[in-house]
Amino acid sequence: MIGKIIGTGSCVPARVIDNNEMATIVETSDEWIKERTGIRSRCISESETTTSMAVEAAKKALEDAKINAKDIDMIIVSTLTANSAMPTTAALVQKEIGATKACCFDLNSACSGFIFGYNTAIAYINAGIYNNILVVGSECLSNIVDWTDRRSCILFGDGAGAAVVSSKYGGNNQVAGYSDGAKGSALTCAGIKDKNVDASEHHQFIEMDGQEVFKFAVRRVPEIINEVVSKAGLELKDVAMYVLHQANYRIIESVAKRLGEDIEKFPTNMQKYGNTSSASIPILLDELNRAGKLKCGDKIVMAGFGGGLSWGAAVLEW
Ligand code: COA
Fold first, then answer.
1. pTM attached to this predicted model
2. Confidence (pLDDT) at 170
3. What pLDDT is recorded for position 175?
4. What confidence score (pLDDT) does residue 231 get?
5. How many CB atoms lie within 10 A of CB 314?
6. 164/64 Cα distance (integer angstroms)
7. Cross-strand partners of 172
């Protein structure tokens, strides 16, 4: 399938909370968090919002792609923490960047959201409907984190990442995505309160069965990576880099081991940002891009997993 990422951008809040500061909020320690997750700090919004970070990341991606906002045909924003249900975050991004021609919508598939957004962009491009699609992942998870729950609040951070996908260039793309709604209770957050639900029953914060999510990720992510790589007619040894959702270093280590791939091929930045849900993959992609670590023609695998439960992957040529 055709389509290529021609520009990336990202934005994280200025305020950094390290593990020692987390230990002043809940009963935990730098040592415990580092050992179990790899995370050392996270950026937490003060004045930044899901929309403002999405706009900033989008502007940087357009600049990097050297494309005019008026040439963007579609904007997909993946988020589970939109500032408003209407207008959509994508429409707000459109307004701020001046992408007057674009069809805009939000998509929510939790931490798989950026991949599902990217896969949707590839599908539109290969159907011949659109040429230039802006895909953004933006999250303000600090708004939905239970700051009294040490099992979950230490994991998450805020941020946004964006990529421009274009039809003008070739590339050997393959995509895949799955959901398992029957296991959805392992990772939940209620969202808008139903009028019939008692306030005490409304679970407005993230609730997670950490071990269940861990087991799900280390099983499903290698499976789907093998699937897309083989669909692309490639072998794992042909993959230059695996850009995975940054939830936990131990998950990434375990995926690398199960694939029999060198951990060096799995760049990470959860150390600095924690788990930023649908923003984590495009933030990492942008850091790698700007550091010149992605070479033209490199085969890259992206893979996300999380709430739903859901998981998705894509092979692309840089
Ligand atoms: N600081 C100190 N101790 C903590 C703690 C914290 N932040 N969080 C939990 N603990 C304690 C528990 O209370 C428990 O103590 P106990 O044995 O006295 O009851 C002990 O540590 C072990 O807890 P457990 O939940 O079994 O830890 P774990 O090894 O499963 O690690 C996670 C917890 C969350 C780090 C791990 O399950 C994980 O990473 N899961 C995946 C989560 C994820 O990535 N979610 C997002 C996916 S998109």
1. 0.97
2. 73
3. 98
4. 97
5. 28
6. 9
7. none
Pairing between strand 74-78 and 103-107? Answer: parallel
80 pocket-lining for ligand 1 (C-beta < 6 Å) = no
* Nearest Cα to Cα of residue 146 among 186, 208, 209, 205: 205
In this prediction, residue 194 carries a pLDDT of 86
Q: Which residues pair with 197 in a beta bridge?
A: none
Q: Which residue matches tokens 């659109």?
A: 130
Token readout for 186 is 């392992």
Dist CA 242 CA 268 (whole Å): 10
Dist. CA 221 → ligand 1 center (Å): 20
Indicate the top mutation candidate among 151, 183, 205 to test ligand 1's pocket, ranked by most ligand atoms within 8 A of CB: 151
Closest ligand 1 atom to 110 CA? 48
* HEC string for 131-198: CEEEEEEEEEHHHCCCCCCHHHHCCECEEEEEEEEECCCCCCCEEEEEECHHHHHHEECCCCCCCCCC
Interatomic CA distance for residues 258 and 46, integer angstroms: 39
Contact present, 305 and 112 (Cβ < 8 Å): yes
Residue 198: predicted pLDDT: 85
| pLDDT score for 199 | 84
Residue count (the chain): 318
Residues of the chain below pLDDT 50? none
